[in-house]
Structures are given as structure tokens and as C-alpha cells.
Write a structure and sequence with these properties.
Elements lengths: L23 E10 L4 E8 L13 E8 L6 E10 L1 E6 L7 E8 L2 E2 L5 H4 L4 H4 L1 E3 L8 E8 L9 E2 L8 E2 L8 H17 L3 E5 L8 H14 L6 E4 L12 H5 L7 E4 L5 E4 L13 H13 L5 E4 L6 H6 L10 H12 L4 E6 L6 E3 L9 E4 L10 E7 L2 E7 L4 H10 L7 H5 L3 H4 E5 L19
Length: about 450
């Protein structure tokens, strides 16, 4: 398979060392935690002047690790100057707590975004605990991505001349395509191309050229509704004169069903209306009900581009009018609650990483919003299924071109937006115990980070 490939992972050209008086070492994140590994990141930059993008100041990368109460051990020491620092440490023990200390130019990195600065966070405490896999046999892995935005030229809310969006550098003009290519390459390298759900906003405004490019990239990844399934997002809504997305992917307000080799069912629905908010029309409800009632106990991941809980609607800075309309939120949750096999509902749209609370007290479905692929936080999620539950992990492709854009897009919405998008370490990485014994192990090889 030949995908548009970014630069080699974590390669960087030498540059001059930063002036220590100006260096800010911040935005510390415990970004990914698996049973046997951790990814920790931070940035080095000039001071922020309340507008624009602060200058990146490349520096060295050092990470120390150790069990609580014991001395730190230097586990990563890279003198190559870079501004977005990403360290992945493997070979850890499941369910064990580790302390860590990240430094650049002799200065310790600290958290900068609100989800990481709260009391008790992994970043503030300087520690993390590796995950314990659910019980039973490993079954399979699938991937979740959304908000690709191919064709977009500025990131963030565009309000005329106000500096609420970030303009890419000349070399980053196709940043949306770059980030999607990086995610596809990462999925190929790490997981041998698992079934991929691309949950809406593949394009910026559903033009023929944008749709053609999205389809080309996915066709190189695999076959539609076999290796990947794509839902429609509000940016992919039909145009007045045509619907390129519908012609290339799926018609408006149509539900798609895909069954993975393990027997897992993906139910991919169209929640789009026209502008930001969404709805589900009666004809599509007929499709959803027919599928769920025909096989209510089959383990299922449901997908809509719009989040479907009241918790999501009222916690978003965009407000409930930006979400699925209220009547549809409740109706869809009731349908899922009446189908015991629906254990996870994946949404995008808000560009944030967040676990949402169901409206129904009896709900067995877990609801999650996945971060955008196109810009900060910038990545994808994988779901590792076991007979006794699943592990969800968020990954950020660690290629230099992608990290350069993530550094820049971090400053969208006057630098405020990412405070609402990052989520906590537990939002990005968690274990859920549930009964998935109705599935069979696929032929997929168990990922290395799950081998304990």
C-alpha cells in the first residue's frame, strides 16, 4: 500500500539551541497509556504575547522514570533539538504506577492546559498507572477517526479579521491531508490496518475535489465497508446543486452496517442536518430499528458524527444547538438501551476528547467524543476488544510534519480552544468491563502493547 507519507517518525534537522531566558517548557501531557507503555509529550516555546503563535524554540528531550519512592532513572535522552517533544516508553508492567520527570534544556516541563493543571491530574502529580487489560481472550482491534476536514485552509473559528483561527505556514497548506495521511500510516505501522471508522467531516465543504482526495486515501487503506466505513458530518452536507459525498460514499440519512471478522457490528448513522446541529429523519430511524431489533444482542459500536447525550450538549462551549436535537438524542439512546449489544457510541464534531454521561440511568452504552484528526489534539483512537471488555487509547502520529502543525494549531481560538479539547488522561485512555463473549477472536495479531 502506498499512502501519502510524512517525514520519518521523529526525525529532525539540527537547529540552534534556544536562549534559556526565553524558553518556556510547558503543555506537559500524559497522552497515551497502555498496559505496557506510555507516551508523554510537551513543547518548548517563547513566551506567549496574548496573540498569534509563540515562536517554537527547539531544545533537547529528556525523560526520567521510576516507581514511587525510588530514584528516577533516565530512560530517554535525545539531544536533537525539537519544539514538540514526544517520548514513547515501552516494556512497562501492567497496573503499575510510575513517577516521571520531563525536561528540556535543564528545565522541567509542566502542564499548561486546563485538563492537565487540575489538582490530582497525572501531569500535575508527575505520575501515571498503566492499564490492566480486561479478562478473557483478545478478540480484535478497530480504529476511530473523525473531523478530517480535507480542503480546509484555516483552523479554528473564522471571524473576519479577528485572530480566532490559525493560518498554516506555506509548507502546511494541506495540513488536513497531512494529518490524515499520518494517521493512516500510523495505523498501518502499529496495527496492520485495522477496520477504520471515519466518523464524519471528511471534507471541508463537500466539493468534488475534496471528496475525490478523501476517497483516494481511503481506497489505498482498503475496501469500503470491509476495511473502512465513512459517515457523513455537517461539513459533508449535500450542496444545493450536488452531493459529491453521497455519490462517493453513502447517500444522505442512510445507516450503514459493517461486520468485522470477530463478529463485531459497526452501525454507522447519518446525524447531519445542514449547519452545525443535527437530526435523524424518520426513514433512517426505520433502518436503525430494523437492524437493532433483528439482532439486539450482537456486540455493537454505534457511530454518529454528532454527540447524542444531554451531558455532551450542555458541556460544549458551542451549546446544545450545535449537537443532535434533543428529541433525537433521547430517542436514539432509548433504541440503544433496548439493544443490549450496543456497548459503545462514538461521536466526533466537537474536536474534543471526552467521556459523556448517558441520560438513561439503566444504559449499558458508553458514550465518547473523539478528538479531531485535522488539528490539535490531532490523532485517532483504537479500541482493543477482549471477551471481558475493551481498552480505548488515543494516539497522536509522531511524525515531524504532523507535530509541527500540532504545535501551530494548538493556538487556535486565541489559544483557548485546546483547553476544552484535550480532555483528561482517563478520557483518552481507559478500560471498560463488559460482556463481549459473543464475539470470536479474529485472525488479527495481538498488538505488542497488549502482550503482558
Amino acid at each position: 500500500m502506498s499512502l501519502p507519507s510524512p517525514s520519518a517518525r521523529l526525525a529532525a534537522a539540527p537547529v540552534a539551541a534556544p536562549t534559556s531566558a526565553r524558553l518556556v517548557v510547558t503543555d506537559l501531557e500524559v497522552s497515551t497509556v497502555t498496559p505496557t507503555s506510555v507516551v508523554i509529550s510537551w513543547i518548548t516555546r517563547a513566551p506567549y504575547r496574548l496573540h498569534g503563535v509563540p515562536a517554537p524554540l527547539p531544545s533537547d528531550t529528556r525523560l526520567e522514570l521510576g516507581p514511587p519512592g525510588e530514584p528516577f532513572v533516565l530512560v530517554h535522552d535525545d539531544p536533537t533539538p525539537r519544539a514538540f517533544h514526544v517520548v514513547e516508553i515501552k516494556g512497562l508492567e501492567p497496573g503499575r504506577t510510575y513517577r516521571f520527570r520531563a525536561t528540556s534544556n535543564g528545565r522541567q516541563a509542566g502542564p499548561g492546559l486546563r485538563p492537565a493543571t487540575r489538582r490530582g491530574t497525572n501531569e500535575r502529580n508527575g505520575e501515571f498507572t498503566t492499564l490492566l487489560p480486561p479478562s478473557g481472550r483478545y478478540l480484535t482491534t478497530i480504529a476511530l477517526a473523525n473531523d478530517i476536514h480535507i480542503g480546509e485552509r484555516r483552523q479554528g473559528i473564522v471571524l473576519g479579521a479577528l485572530p480566532t483561527s490559525v493560518r498554516p505556514e506555506d509548507t502546511q497548506s494541506d495540513y488536513a491531508e497531512l494529518m490524515f495521511a499520518a494517521a493512516l500510516c500510523d495505523l498501518q505501522d502499529r496495527y496492520a490496518s485495522p477496520l477504520l471508522v471515519v466518523n464524519g467531516d471528511l471534507t471541508y465543504d463537500n466539493t468534488s475535489e475534496q471528496v475525490r482526495r478523501a476517497r483516494e486515501m481511503l481506497d489505498e487503506y482498503g475496501a469500503q465497508r470491509v476495511d473502512w466505513v465513512a459517515t457523513r458530518g455537517n461539513h459533508d452536507h449535500p450542496r444545493r446543486d450536488a452531493d459529491p459525498f453521497g455519490e462517493a460514499f453513502v447517500g444522505y440519512q442512510e445507516t450503514q452496517k459493517v461486520c468485522e471478522a470477530s463478529g463485531l457490528r459497526i452501525l454507522a448513522m447519518d446525524s447531519t442536518h445542514g449547519s452545525g446541529g443535527g437530526w435523524i429523519l424518520p426513514d433512517q430511524y426505520d433502518q436503525i430499528m430494523a437492524e437493532l431489533q433483528a439482532d439486539p444482542d450482537r456486540p455493537t459500536i454505534a457511530c454518529t458524527h454528532h454527540p447524542v447525550t444531554t451531558d455532551a450538549a450542555w458541556s460544549s462551549v458551542s451549546g446544545p444547538q450545535f449537537m443532535l436535537r434533543g428529541a433525537d438524542r433521547l430517542r436514539l439512546q432509548i433504541l440503544e438501551n433496548n439493544a443490549p449489544g450496543v456497548f459503545l457510541h462514538h461521536a466526533g464534531h466537537t474536536h474534543r476528547m471526552r467521556r459523556d454521561r448517558a441520560d438513561l440511568f439503566t444504559s449499558q452504552t458508553n458514550y465518547i467524543e473523539n478528538a479531531a484528526c485535522a488539528a490539535y489534539p490531532g490523532g485517532y483512537a483504537v479500541v482493543h476488544l477482549y471477551e471481558g471488555g475493551y481498552i480505548l487509547n488515543f494516539w497522536r502520529p509522531a511524525y515531524p510534519d504532523a507535530l509541527d502543525w500540532l504545535y501551530r494549531s494548538r493556538w487556535q481560538m486565541l489559544g483557548i480552544g485546546p483547553h476544552f479539547m484535550l480532555g483528561t488522561t482517563a478520557d483518552r485512555n481507559h478500560v471498560v468491563h463488559c460482556d463481549l463473549s459473543g464475539l470470536q477472536p479474529s485472525e488479527r495479531e495481538q498488538p505488542t502493547e497488549l502482550l503482558v
